[in-house]
Amino acid sequence: MILANPKLDINLSIIEDNTRQIVQLAKSKGIDIFGVIKGVGGDIEIAKAMILGGVVGLGDSRLDNLKKLKRLKVPLMLLRIPMLSQAKRVVKIADISLNSQLEVIDRLDKEAASLNKVHKIILMIDLGDRREGVLPKDTLNYVDEIRTLKNIRLVGLGSNLACFRGVLPTEDKMLQLMELVKGAEGLLGRKLPIISGGNSSSLPLLLKEGYTPITNQLRVGETIILGRKVPSGDKFSFTKLDGIKLKAEVIEIKNKPVNSDKVNGDSNVNNSLDEEIRRRGILAIGSQDIEAKGLIPCNKGIIVEGASSDHLIVDLTNVQGVMVGDEVSFRLNYSSLLRAATSPYVKKFYYREDDRD
Ligand SMILES: *Cc1c(COP(=O)(O)O)cnc(C)c1O
Predict the structure, then answer these.
(1) 105-114: long-range contacts (C-beta < 8 A, 24 or more apart)?
(2) Alpha-carbon Rg of the chain, whole angstroms?
(3) d(Cα 27, Cα 20) in Å, to the nearest integer?
(4) Torsion of Cα atoms, 238 then 341 then 60 then 224, to 10°
């Protein structure tokens, strides 16, 4: 075994299995799944596990990540609306991009013409989350403009919910999207093959009794990789949470007097307050690599107190047997995972279920 800390232990069997469960659920409702890989910095091994699990393509927000994935020979979707300055790279690297800005779409058209390509786009509609997207009232004007562009193929409408304001996908929102699809199809005189409904937060709706989805594509990252429902963080009955674990090494353990009042920084430490002796540990990882509040200790007795740039402080008073040199394991939320997976200081170790215990 290679000793290196901190690290992400990545169980590819679990990620493949989570993917397969979600793909099957979606398929039973006529929905294709694009696997979203940005939460792990475009990691190619995880991408392969998603493909084995049955995703129809891969999506990422960043072109550099998509470029790495090109050799996997599956359709690649750029999730973040493109930068004007990168239009040419978008056409070269992505098979399909999500868009909301006409000047960008115009530029994509020109670059596609110069490369003798037709670039596919999905027009994003803002159904209330107030991140990217055209407002519903402006949608048909956009479609009318886009249909004049020779090297752009509008293949669908899409929406993104629960990302910024936390507006959740509901049947109402989906009906609103359906109305716009019908209007757009009327203008174009053809069917739009893709209605791209959203992200992980759309999955719970698929389990609702009697729900017939309007969308035929979802872009899913978090629930595949972490097994977690969005936004609650609970697991689904058919997903597993331990696809990725973070491990960090204990470098100090001491009993220390600790203010019962929480203090953050030393500006307002008040030594006159009641002090309690607690068993405190320091782990060799910090906010360069993780977000402390997004760490969930696998050993339930451990409490995460907080982090500075390179130190994570934990309370070990209620756990036995943890010693200096030991590894402590955590599950992560999405933003902590994002940071860990893109920190050059955190090593990645891949295994399959059958490789261990
Ligand atoms: C990140 C992202 C997704 C995937 O979100 P998850 O919550 O990880 O499923 C889907 N669509 C877009 C546009 C995104 O930016």
Answers:
(1) 105/145, 105/146, 105/149, 105/152, 106/149, 108/82, 108/151, 108/152, 109/149, 109/150, 109/151, 109/152, 110/151, 111/87, 112/151, 112/152, 113/150, 113/151, 114/88
(2) 23
(3) 10
(4) 0
Q: Are 47 and 225 in contact (CB under 8 A)?
A: no
Indicate which residue's Cα is closest to atom 15 of ligand 1: 79
Kindly give the number of the ligand 1 atom that is closest to the alpha carbon of 219: 10
pLDDT in tens, 94-103: 999 999 999 9
Diameter of the chain measured on Cα atoms = 76
Residue 244's Cβ-count burial label (10 Å; 0-12, 13-18, 19+) is buried
Q: Are strands 57-60 and 76-78 parallel, antiparallel or unpaired?
A: parallel
pLDDT at 169: 72
Regions of the chain short of the pLDDT cut 70: 1-3, 162, 164-166, 260-274, 354-357
- Rounded to the nearest angstrom, the distance between the alpha carbon of 62 and the centre of ligand 1 is 12
What DSSP string runs through 198-239?
-SGGGHHHHTSTT---S-SEEEE-HHHHH-B-TTT-PBPTT-
Of 36, 60, 127, 205, which is best to mutate to test ligand 1, by the most ligand atoms within 8 angstroms of its C-beta?
36
38 is catalytic: yes
The residues lining ligand 1, judged by C-beta closer than 6 Å to any ligand atom, are: 36, 38-39, 61, 79, 98, 160, 199-200, 219-222, 230
Phi, psi of 300 (to 5 degrees): -65, -20
In 3D, which of 158, 217, 155 has the Cα closest to residue 188? 155
Neighbouring residues of 1: CB distance < 8 A, sequence distance ≥ 6:
none
Q: Going by CA atoms, what residue is nearest to atom 12 of ligand 1?
A: 79
The rounded Å distance from CA 312 to ligand 1 centre is 29
**Atom of ligand 1 at shortest distance to CA of 230?**
7
Q: Is the dihedral of CA 300, 301, 305, 309 positive or negative?
A: negative
CA 81 to centroid of ligand 1, rounded, Å: 12
C-alpha dist (Å) from residue 275 to 227, 258, 270, 271 = 40, 5, 10, 8
